[in-house]
Amino acid sequence: MSNELLSPVEMAEADRLAIATGPFNGIGLMRRAGAAVAAVVLARYPAATPVHVLCGPGNNGGDGYVVARLLAEAGVDVAIWVSGKPRAGSDAAIAAAECPVAPRPLTAFAPDFGSIVVDALYGAGLSKSLPVDATNAIDFARSLLLPVVAIDLPSGVSGDTGAVLGEEAFRADITVTFARKKPGHLLLPGRELCGEIVLADIGIPDSVVNDLIPRTFENKPALWVGNLPVPATDAHKYKRGHAGVFSGGPSTTGAARLSALAAARAGAGAVTVLSPADAMQINAAHLTAIMLRRSDTVADLNNFIGERRPSAFVLGPGFGVGERTRDLALAILRAGRQGAASGIGGLVLDADGITSFRDEPASLFEATREPHAPALVMTPHEGEFARLFSDIAADKSLSKLAKARAAAQRANAVVVYKGADTVIVAPNGLAAINGNGAPWLATAGSGDVLAGIIAGLLAQGMAVFAAAAAAVWIHAEAGRRFGPGLIAEDLPLAMVPVLRELVEAKQADAI
Ligand SMILES: NC(=O)C1=CN([C@@H]2O[C@H](COP(=O)(O)OP(=O)(O)OC[C@H]3O[C@@H](n4cnc5c(N)ncnc54)[C@H](OP(=O)(O)O)[C@@H]3O)[C@@H](O)[C@H]2O)[C@@H](O)CC1
Ligand SMILES: [K+]
């Protein structure tokens, strides 16, 4: 698998181990890195003249010297602009010595229309905001709309967090990175600033990456497709799981129905909307395949659990904030208290379900730690996240990934921290960052559908982290493929071709 994401520290360790293992030493890896970038420049910008290579003082600059040499050897007109000299004896110093192009100071950088920029100023070793010679170069390149090919990362972007350290960073058209992507390639604003990402193999063996035991992955089907539920030949509806979705009052029932429909499309064999008495009529008027049951109190819920053996729940969409919401959530988490596990695979707590615990999050986090408690999946967007984890949200030193990790550990829950760069994290720190989102998904009700997909997969017994990660990817893929005009009602049906491909991929794999 090459979907592991390595932090800059892990990447440096991988470099070190790879050099120790061979067959490539440091300059060997650097030559391969530079060659990969030069190939991209030649293939994508064959007419660019000149190519301006901007080299920083570290190994990122070293890659730049290799690129400049190879392009010059290929007959391309190349100029090198330098900020800081490579340390004597470093691989970058060797690469600079091998490069026949005379370096000029970056402060004198003066490009023309028609040229392109190769950004080799700072990569994984960026440690602070960019110096003024770099920001001036960025402004100059931007004013001429020059294409930018970034090496490893656009200078100014943190590989760890995707944040811009300081005020400015390059906005690349293409970013060529090596061995594995870094979190900063997927987390915003890094993802946008990278442009197209090309992942180049520079000879770091998979075994070296495996030895690091990575805990962070790009959210791709390979991560969970093996666990995707596919009905057995002897399936009947309850064998395929039963999801219960709580409806709000008469004027806010639509969100639950969206969740319910999504849970059904995700494959739950049966889905029941649990409706307050005063919303029964309106729900009945809008449901067909989805079942309906009156449920106002914790006693009603417990009767449902006892009689109908649900295997997953969604609580929160359109439900309302308050004590009743808290009581129902805690009742589900305590349903296994009497001894054996309840058979409930998980509770998806979304929207109002999350906000309801704003003033007493500890009661929720304690309930998740009780013996036999069903798994909790929380799906906060940024605002909801800050309501439940205000201290973590306010910590500017933490990336979105680190925030989600801290929250998942505290809550003992799988946290799906939503946004254009949704992060999914398990309590043990296993994490996936989603990369297939599309702006069309930012539409009312979209989150209700996501909660329903997660519950639909949980209901069928899919492992919790896998279910959450799969749901995020499927939801995004459905929205991305549907494109303009998407509304939340479209998503359950738009999932169908995505699901078909995944099931076929799983079956093909099993053959
Ligand atoms: N064998 C390998 O390891 C391979 C590595 N590869 C390549 O190496 C890159 C990583 O190299 P790297 O670790 O040298 O970091 P790099 O990004 O060049 O910067 C470090 C230098 O910049 C300085 N500095 C940082 N920020 C600054 C700022 N804002 N303003 C001013 N100065 C700043 C920093 O100074 P310091 O923070 O130490 O004071 C230090 O001097 C990686 O991205 C990939 O391209 C490939 O060749 C494959 C093989
Ligand atoms: K760079």
Automatic annotation (TrEMBL):
It catalyses: (6R)-NADHX = (6S)-NADHX; (6S)-NADPHX + ADP = AMP + phosphate + NADPH + H(+); (6R)-NADPHX = (6S)-NADPHX; (6S)-NADHX + ADP = AMP + phosphate + NADH + H(+). The keyword Cell division does not apply. K(+) binds at residues 60, 119, 155. AMP binds at residues 418-422, 447. Its EC number is 4.2.1.136, 5.1.99.6. The chain crosses the membrane at residues 449-474. The keyword Lipid biosynthesis does not apply. Residues 11-210 form the YjeF N-terminal domain. (6S)-NADPHX binds at residues 59-63, 123-129, 152, 255, 318, 381, 448. InterPro entries: Carbohydrate_kinase_pred_CS (IPR017953), CARKD (IPR000631), Nnr (IPR030677), Ribokinase-like (IPR029056), YjeF_N_dom (IPR004443), YjeF_N_dom_sf (IPR036652). Keywords: ATP-binding, Isomerase, Lyase, Membrane, Metal-binding, Multifunctional enzyme, NAD, NADP, Nucleotide-binding, Potassium, Transmembrane, Transmembrane helix. Its cofactor is Mg(2+); K(+). Residues 220-502 form the YjeF C-terminal domain. Binds 1 potassium ion per subunit. Homotetramer. Belongs to the NnrD/CARKD family. Bifunctional enzyme that catalyzes the epimerization of the S- and R-forms of NAD(P)HX and the dehydration of the S-form of NAD(P)HX at the expense of ADP, which is converted to AMP. This allows the repair of both epimers of NAD(P)HX, a damaged form of NAD(P)H that is a result of enzymatic or heat-dependent hydration. Catalyzes the epimerization of the S- and R-forms of NAD(P)HX, a damaged form of NAD(P)H that is a result of enzymatic or heat-dependent hydration. This is a prerequisite for the S-specific NAD(P)H-hydrate dehydratase to allow the repair of both epimers of NAD(P)HX. This is Bifunctional NAD(P)H-hydrate repair enzyme. The gene is nnrD.
